[in-house]
């Protein structure tokens, strides 16, 4: 069990882990060892993800999530299979933690009477300053 929040835990059986060959330079070793890791996580059918969390998760993942609600994350940062596996799981946990946080709703407030007066006084000062700059002769 992987802890996401105090009340939400992710079962490791829900994560499909595949080892694939990493691309890039590396000589003969890279052609015979599958050091890159790809995980697939079905977020749409996960029991602890509710509709609101799923919407936030969809927004956070972007192109990492398929149309079916499956999150696909790949890592080939290191040559070690275990480090890549830990890295991918950590990235998935971070995304799930971020989506579990409910955003605070903004309370609409009105400007105070004093702030309205300050704004109008400032506008009057600017207006009179600009009027004094003109070269017009007033009779």
Summary, kept brief:
The protein is α+β, with helices and mostly antiparallel strands and 139 residues long. It is 41% helix and 17% strand.
SSE inventory with pairings:
Blueprint (H helix, E strand, L loop, with lengths): L1 E2 L5 E2 L4 E6 L7 H5 L3 E7 L8 H11 L8 E6 L5 H20 L12 H21 L6
Antiparallel strand pairs: 1-2, 3-4, 4-5
Helix pairs in contact: 2-3
Q: Would you tell me the structural class of the helices and strands?
A: alpha+beta
**Cα-atom radius of gyration:** 28 Å
The average pLDDT value, as a whole number, equals 80
Number of structurally distinct domains: 1
Question: Distance between termini?
Answer: 87 Å
CATH class: Alpha Beta
Following the backbone from N to C, one meets helices and strands in this order, namely: EEEHEHEHH
The total of helices stands at 4
CATH topology description: Double Stranded RNA Binding Domain
> Got a strand count?
5
The major pleated sheet works out as: 3 strands, antiparallel
Strand content: 15-25%
The percent of residues in helical segments reads 40-55%
- Assembly state: single chain
CATH level-two architecture: 2-Layer Sandwich
- Order of neighbouring strands in the sheet with most strands: 3-4-5
**Which runs of at least 5 residues are low in confidence (pLDDT < 50)?**
none
Given the C-alpha coordinates, what overall shape results?
elongated
